[in-house]
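The records we work with from here on pair a chain with its fold. These numbers are not coordinates but entries in a learned vocabulary of local backbone shapes. To see the layout at work, look at the sequence and tokens printed below.
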Amino acid sequence: MKREKKEKAPKPKKEKAPKPKKEKKAKKPKKGKKGAAPELENLEEGVVETGKRSKKKKLLMLLLPVLVVAVGAAVFLFVIRPKLGEKEPEEPPPPEPVELPLMYKLGETEVHALPVWGESTVYLEEPEVPAVAPDGGENAAGEEGEEGEEGEEGEEGDAKEEPAEPTAVIYRYEGLSSPGMLASVYTTLLTAEDVGFSQVDEELTRIKEPEELAVAAGSVHLAKNAPEEGKALSIQMVWTEEICTVTADLVDGRVKSPPEPASPMGPMGLSAEQMMDYMQSLNPAVLGLEGSTMEGYDLLMQDGSVLIDNIPCVRINAYRIDSEIGTNEIGGNYFLSLDGTHLYRLDVASNSVEELALP
């Protein structure tokens, strides 16, 4: 018979006693660098200081976006926005051509236009509006600047006058073969005796010996007295090798002859201005003319002198202003002695003179 093995009971494990933990040696504090902040001995105080610094950093981080937004708003308001409101000036559309004018209308008078037929393109230009001069007078309150009745009168007296609207009509001719030659021919036509225009300066004074017009580029001013009182018909031409500009206008003023030098006869002789004034003072009946005054006639003195009965005389032609037709018709031709004591009327048909009785 087999013997049954007896199971051995497990031996109880011996529990080891826990080793005591070694205490770590405290590290020696490192020596501080020059200029470095000393470390805090109290850890709790160090925690407090770190918190303050973090709060300042957070505050700066919050202020930075606000500052950026403020700068951006200022740039938009003062730089970008004004530029957005400014619109680039649009170029005006090119002018459309007009029909070739046959006549220029100057007030109530019509004058033949520049003789062009189908070889040019004509445009209308806008005349310049005269600028208003600044008021440099006294203030509205009077010399002393006090308010009251004087000041009110000053305000009424210093009212600014509005500039007069321009009446000129400006034609620009383009595509001409020779604008200078055309202007010269047109000037010859208008200055003919039956038309009555003269070359004048800026003050509407007749030019005695006008220079020959330039072909390449130049200008000329033609004028004659208009039927309207105190007005003159004015035609100005300016041309280059390709363009001719014509300005037709009814302007203020009267066409007049230039003053003549004093007569060489000494104290008994009359100047040209005195002779013209004397003729204007006469009654038209003395000269055999119609009307009650010489205001309806335009006088023109010719250059040089002639001898009549061995008396030096100057020729003066009188032109009647026709307000209905708008032309100047010859009324009579006269010779006035330089001393103003003799007056003769010329009969053109017989080339003879007749002495007139002076008042």
